Amino acid sequence: MLNDLVYLRRLWSHDKTLDSLKVALAFAGVVAFCFGTGREDWLIGLILGVIAAALAESPDRVAGRMKALLVTLLCFGVTSVSVRLLFPYPWLFAVGLALSTFTYVMLGALGERYATIATASVILAIYTMLGVAQHADNTVPFLHDPLLLLAGTCWYGAISLVAAAIFANRPASQVVSQVFVALGRYLALKASLLEPVRGRDVKALRLALAAQNGRLVGQMNRARQILLLWAQSPRPAHGARPFLQWYFLAQEVHERASSAHHPYEALSEAFSRSDVLFRCQRLMSLQAAACTRLGQAIAQGDVFDYGNDGALALQELDAALSHVLTTGPQDKALVNALSDLCRNLRTIELRLSHAGQPDALEVISDSTLRDADPQTLAEMWRRLRQQFRPSSRRFRHGLRLSAALTAGYALLNLLDLPQGYWVLLTTVFVCQPNFSSTWLRLGQRVGGTVAGLLAATLFVSSFPHPLAQLALVVASGVAFFNFRAERYSLATACITVLVMVCFNQFGSSYALVWPRLLDTLLGSLLAIAAVAFILPEWHGKRVHHAMARSLSLSATYLSEILSQYRSGPRDDLPYRVARRDAHNADAELSSTLASMLTEPDRYSLPPDAAYRFLCASHTLLGYISALGAHREQDTSGLQLAEITTPEARIQQGLAQIANALATRSAVIVPGPGSTASDQAPELAISETAQRVMRQLSLIEGLLPELAELASGFAVDTQTGQA
Predict the structure, then answer these.
(1) Which residues contact 442 (CB under 8 A, 6 or more apart)?
(2) What is the pLDDT of residues 576-624, one digit of tens each?
(3) Under CATH, to which class is 539-718 assigned?
(4) What Pfam families does the record point to (predicted)?
(5) Residue ranges of the chain assigned to CATH 1.20.58.220
(6) I need a surface site. Which of 157, 193, 243, 666 has the fewest CB within 10 A?
(7) What is the pTM of this model?
């Protein structure tokens, strides 16, 4: 019995559980109402309204959800009525379809909430077409289909508002929980780098670490957006303060975990006969597990107990370090790097040991979060104007999607396709802002559709009873929303089953199998053609900009860190923004290179060199993060020429390489100058200043490799390979 309760608590804490319950209740209510009142013909319209409303939902508080619901109803109402008005006039309808699609895509520039509603509005327009096409004989009132869709939207909106009121802090707890789970995975990967074993594929480990860093940064960005609504609104939510403290803790641990104090290969070679690196690895592995347990505790509302394993591991590490300091290698640089690494792990241990009491965590003097969304009408207009240029990705995507939908509408009229509006629906879901995402979505959509058609056919023939089929409608609808973010193929199969079973209530669904498959193929081809030929967005042609942006923002991060060594450490908003921007740029570079691999070869850079640059850039960010992790005020020490001179060389070198990448020009490789670490032992300066010297030396040592790689890309570009 106790195990069952534990399982149920874990199930309830899952981030998809509440959403699944809301969708299940909405679908079950629609089915019960339609078949209980004898209005089975309303089933499809109401269900499509529920789906559109769920797609437009945003993780907001009650007041915010109410405003979003009103905006959603306004957009849905205007869209569905416009479709109903223009439907009898194909030429006007085509113009309206293109203009409205482009307008909705551009409105997404105002923020994530508006982008979600805009996308759902385009989908609802096609749902309205499906409904109107079913009543081409005009046997129903003019507003029949718009009202059904809006009724479904209101029904789901009401459920969403009630859930938001009852489970007020659940979105905040869920997103912070996911941050710590992702942080735990990152720490586990970082710990694997510390294992002093020869013959390992270090390159694969670094690439996996960079990819996980990108996922972690994305999760932290999502958490910031939600915490803005919970903890930084004019009226902060009750009990939201701990989530903000945990978020700041995750940021600090991430900065420390991403730190690099020396090339790990050199450390492994130097200390291969000692157990000190194994001790470091064990401690970081325990910290990774602790982050995962903390995330689970936050999601379940439990008190987090850190335990004693970390403290015991830290004691063993300190003993191993003391042994190395007395009997280990005489290379001062390696010993200092090892000491800094242990010091960093010790601080992470201290922070996590107090994570169970968020009120006892270190208070952030400036807990302001930057809100990038426009707040006034003037800011909204300025944001929209900035997007109206061919270089804007949103502008390009709006043109492509508008053209694809218009072409699909012309095609279904020319070929007189039965249920041809599924072509448009497929195009909306498949057409993504770039080729790689669209190509991936195409395979998922086609594969999922085929699987869904087979599953629906088998189920309908095996379970002809209406109650069994209606139960499948509810189950497949819930499964669609449960899988649509991470497993789109399975989500497509589920929504295909739902559609086929719904239509089977009013006739044979077997007649829809081949039309559905044909429409999916046509819609997918239109989407991929639009992305490939209409202002195409090739990652291989813009990876230079991602590289330049990564170096430029890393330089800004470095400058902000060193300024705090001079004026005193503080996690204020400018520092946190500089840190987040640098990590965002690193994550963007990683995702850009991954996407580039799916593009045609003529648009790609040499992958080996590109990933070497990614590893070097990620290492650069690690060296800079180490400086951020060890911040201490040393105003006089930071004024020494042994620090200011390499600092100036580094800033100049990074600026030159970034500019060369942005302009696709050759790079002058910086010559090796006198390094700060060579002079550090001879200077009577503070330990803090020596640590800064060591990290600056590592950073400056990376510049020739970065410049060489950047020069290679410039040559490849000039010879036409990119």
Answers:
(1) 430, 524, 527, 528
(2) 888 999 999 988 888 888 888 777 766 666 777 788 888 888 889 999 9
(3) mainly alpha
(4) FUSC-like, FUSC_2
(5) 170-360
(6) 666
(7) 0.86
Token pair, residue 406, equals: 């218009």
If we measure between CA atoms, which residue out of 667, 672, 643 comes closest to residue 551?
A: 667
Burial code (b: 16+ CB inside 10 Å, e: under 16) for 274-309 equals bbbbbbbbbbbbbbbbbbbbbbbbbbeeeebebeee
SS3 of 554, please? Answer: helix
Whether 236 shows a pLDDT value over 70: the answer reads no
C-alpha separations of 244 from 4, 112, 131, 180, 511 in Å: 32, 21, 46, 13, 54
Q: How confident is the model at residue 678 (pLDDT cuts 50, 70, 90)?
A: very low
CA distance 122 to 124: 5
Mean pLDDT of 475-497: 87
Q: How far does Cα 514 stand from its chain's mean position?
A: 36
Backbone CA torsion sign across 362, 365, 369, 375: positive
Torsion of CA 302, 308, 310, 314, to 10 degrees: 150
Please tell me the distance from the alpha carbon of residue 184 to that of residue 202, in angstroms, as a whole number. 20
507 band by pLDDT with thresholds 50, 70 and 90: low
Token digits for 23? 């969708």
For the segment 415-426, the average pLDDT, to the nearest whole number, is 81
Structure confidence by residue, pLDDT tens digits, 338-355: 888 899 999 999 888 888
Residue 138 confidence class, pLDDT cut points 50, 70, 90: low
Count how many Cα atoms sit within 13 Å of the Cα of residue 480 in the half-sphere of its side chain: 27
- Angle at which helix 435-462 crosses helix 573-596, to 10 degrees, equals 70
Asked if pLDDT for residue 682 goes beyond 60, the answer is no
d(CA 185, CA 619): 19
Q: Is 292 helix (H, G, I), strand (E, B) or coil?
A: helix
CA distances from 324 to 55, 195, 266, 335 (A): 58, 17, 16, 8
